[in-house]
Design brief:
single chain, 291 residues, alpha/beta, Rossmann fold, 2 domains, seven-stranded parallel beta sheet, 10 helices, globular
Length: 291
């Protein structure tokens, strides 16, 4: 706790009111940085929360999603809130991604400092097909949208030299990449591939331009995508009880992503980072004993 009788320079983020106990909140972590945020759909989306936090921290960025998602979501509203240009792009199409990076650099006035990949979709999950009876065309679409799209994004940026030195790329994942959660279905395979791509491309982009690439394994979160998974409420409640800190919210995940975009995490790359309230380190919990 800290008490202070004077008001300090608010531009630093250290606003100390007379004779009050304060918590220090640093502002401007992304001041001057330029980014691209994939996957914001509505206010429930983690990408939506990341955009709001990035704006708050001084960043400028473009927003992007597939054309069909733009029609059904509220991303234009988010763009207005954040003074951000919305650029339609299908992350599975190389031509769209090439155009996205070109347009983003034009709009933002330079190379990109951070990218958020928050993209995931499984037709098999939507159609409620069990893992032992997958439609393989749907399976290919799951992999293409949810995992291979990260490689396509990175390759498009790499070939265009679109990212600044020490840029940061973050992709959202889930612990089903390492452990079995039957209801997560073929999305588990996609997340495992996503994390592998982050490690592999993290090496190549690190050597080339000091670009860092990480995945964040987030708690089950009440988003449009998450709620479509069979037994999601059970997932959510189980993780809430098992995790010493409870489930990490979308807002706290957004805060974490901001730190990964910032210069404070420059030497962190090729990692899968668990942001799950401790769930990933638990074996059992007394909360379940006797149930």
């Amino acid at each position: 706790m800290l008490k202070c009788p004077v008001l300090l320079n608010s531009k630093t983020g250290f606003v100390l009111l007379p004779h009050t106990t304060i918590a220090i909140y640093i502002m401007g972590l992304l001041q001057g940085k330029k980014g691209i945020i994939f996957g914001a759909l509505n206010e429930q989306s983690i990408a939506w929360r990341v955009a709001l936090k990035a704006k708050e921290q001084g960043a400028t960025f473009t927003l992007t999603n597939a054309p069909v998602a733009l029609r059904f979501g509220s991303i234009q509203q988010l763009g207005e809130q954040c003074d951000a240009t919305v650029i339609p792009a299908d992350a599975t199409k190389e031509a769209d991604l090439k155009a996205l990076f070109e347009q983003s650099q034009t709009v933002l006035g330079g190379k990109i400092d951070f990218v958020l990949h928050s993209i995931g979709m499984s037709p098999n999950v939507r159609k409620k097909r069990p893992y032992t009876k997958l439609n393989y065309k749907f399976y290919s679409q799951t992999i293409d949208v949810s995992a291979m799209s990260l490689h396509k994004v990175l390759q498009a940026a790499y070939q265009q030299d679109a990212l600044n030195e020490w840029a940061s790329v973050v992709a959202l994942s889930y612990i089903a990449a390492q452990r079995t959660f039957p209801g997560y279905n073929d999305m588990a395979d996609a997340k495992a591939m996503l994390e592998s791509i982050a490690r592999s491309f993290g090496y190549h982009y690190g050597i080339k331009n000091k670009v860092r690439i990480n995945t964040v394994s987030q708690s089950p979160t009440l988003t449009t995508a998450g709620s479509g998974i069979k037994g999601f409420d059970d997932f959510f409640n189980y993780a809430e009880k098992m995790s010493p800190l409870g489930n990490a919210s979308a807002d706290s995940c957004a805060d974490f992503c901001i730190t990964l975009f910032s210069d404070f995490t420059r030497m962190l790359t090729m990692q899968n980072l668990y942001h799950d309230g401790g769930f990933s380190s638990m074996g059992m919990s007394p909360a379940f004993v006797g149930q």
